[in-house]
Amino acid sequence: MLALYSNIKRDCYSKVLYYHDIHKDKPFTDMSTEIELFKKHIEVLKNEGFKIVSEISQKEFEVMITFDDGWKGLYESFDFFIENKIPVKLFLISSRIGQKNYLTKNEIESMLKTKLLTIGSHTVNHLNLDEIEDSQVDTELISSKKNLEDLFGVEINSICYPRGRFNENIVKMSKSAGYTTQYSCLPGNYFNEPYENVKRRNFVQHESPSTFRSWLYGGGMAFEKRYRKLHIRER
Question: Which pLDDT score, from 0 to 100, does residue 8 have?
């Protein structure tokens, strides 16, 4: 279905891709992508004429690569990103920095110094924002932004919703907290926003090169209804 849909659409629109971690030997999470598979994804991008960028500005043929949570494997594999000049955006759970299997402050700072890494918020505690009271949502949004800005001395103006779960109220609260760009887990192209300044992302971390190519050309939109049901939740 994915391949069929991508062949029909042949969608070259710019997209955000997302992973959780990357590893050479031992994974720090079962959501991690083996580096050899990741290299094949990069090869597909190059062969298909997509440019990897830190921020998407063009309607077509740009890709932004993002990672969620802040697992340690990204740092251990970052030499590959440096060698190939691959920019990446990392959404950090601020309370987990320095915890077991997670990146330390020094490791994050080291990657930031390369100018290839940018960071955003993944909240303080990775709670389902659609299941907690507004006062707690505010704390998760505002405290994470402040914590990351204080730790790293950079402006934090983007957020990725934990587990991709959000609703219209969370969009409004995130905007009020100072997040000018919000990232969901809904598939599709960058400029097709489900809400104002809410971006779509495509989940490719364990995909084979052929299936990855199908996602690249818009095949993920075959699952649009399923993803909306999973991720857009009112209380």
Answer: 55
Of the options 3.40.50.10140, 3.20.20.370, 3.60.15.10, 3.30.1120.10, the CATH number for the domain spanning 2-231: 3.20.20.370
Per DSSP, the three-state class of 153 is coil
Beta pairing partners, 123? none
Element of type H or E holding 120: strand 117-121
Positive or negative, the CA dihedral 92, 95, 99, 105 is positive
Q: From CA 183, how far away is CA 185, in angstroms rounded?
A: 7
Nearest to 17 by CA among 185, 227, 154, 210: 185
CA dist., res. 86 & res. 157, Å (int): 21
| Mean pLDDT, range 207-216, rounded to an integer | 96
Q: Is the pLDDT at 33 greater than 80, yes or no?
A: yes
pTM beyond cutoff 0.85 = yes
Type of residue at 133? E
Closest listed residue to residue 198, CA positions, set 176, 175, 226: 175
User: Which of 9 and 38 is assigned the larger pLDDT?
Assistant: 38
Nearest to 140 by CA among 161, 155, 167: 161
Using 50, 70 and 90 to split pLDDT, how confident is the model at 9? low
Residue ranges per structural domain of the chain:
2-231
